[in-house]
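Next comes one such specimen:
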Amino acid sequence: MNAIEILTDHRRHLIQRLVSRSPLLKFLPGAHREDICELFKDITPDTPALTKDSREDAVTTPESMLRYLLKSNPRPAAILNPAKSAVAKCRKIRQQGEEHRHNTGQNSLYIGYPLIFTPIERERKRFLLAPLFLWPISCHVAMRKISFNRLKDEDSGTLDAQFNRIFQARLKREEGIQLKWNNEEEDVTYDNLTEQVRRILQHWSECEKDFDPGVTDSLPSSPKNYFLTLTHPKVLSSAVIGHGPFKGQALLDDLDQLESQLQQNPENCGVLKYFLFQRDSNPEPQAREPSENAKWLANDSDHSQESAIWQARESCLTVLQGPPGTGKSQTIVNLIADALAQKKNVLVVCQKRAALDVIKKRLDGVNLGDLVELIDDLTVTVLSKPSEQLKMMKTICQLKNPSEKTNGR
């Protein structure tokens, strides 16, 4: 198999896994999601705000909330005096979003809108309810106020709505239908949403594409009730807010971009060329074991672990793998210690915060913790607060120049 065939095969297996598990294909209200209409239970439409300070952001209908948040220049939306059930649900949604961000560094709070109902097996009442777009948001909850806002990037620009690529991949795989979307499309906003939906779904003749953004419909309380009125795929003017992890979506985008790169310039794929292309038949020479005075290991290690460390000194790319309990974490700590002893800078990146905590704890245990700075939740904690950013940069500079840290005390 050539490089492009390898990527195509990997993408096919990835899609197969995603379409069988992804919550983005069945974005129903549940433990960590809610029908937006339920947030306005017991709220009288067009009721004046109780205080002058909150009047500008106050919303009393789902339609006004979507209009505020999804415009090209979005503004905050606040629900005043919400029902206790709405407050409790939004607290749970926010807590789940914070936990997900803490563990992965990624946002998972979205408004899914509009939704597309797709029947699969009418006899067994199986269906998909997928958001066509997911709009990244933040949520703040108080006793008498629930506030929402669109997320910003590090330059204070509004993050764009995310197209549901997993739904697109599922339709192409199962139905042979290609939705008309790529990452170079113009921004989607509340004002052009109807036009964009029709354009994206133009090749899906079976789907009813007309919906009215000016009217937000609540979802049925029981999933089986969807089939009482809906017989064909249909765009619903309904919205669900809550936890929607984009697991695999970013990887789909990366694979598509990499495939395009390979078609244009096969050598322009970074370190992946070591995996995708056959290398010279002459392997890299086996690293020699250094003298005892040139070994800087912080943890006990066996012969195979030490061999990996010596080889990493000579190789431009090293991949270590092994089942749980084989000493990968302690080998990583030894690799870090060895690099630091050679006055090198080390960046350790993990998908989950828990893995970083394990490494940090091990480094603390061998008295290397003072040479380490743990960066967590970069997009919110650091970049949104200039003072925190400056503090972090100063700390890192001090780590690179220990004398400055000493002189500053």
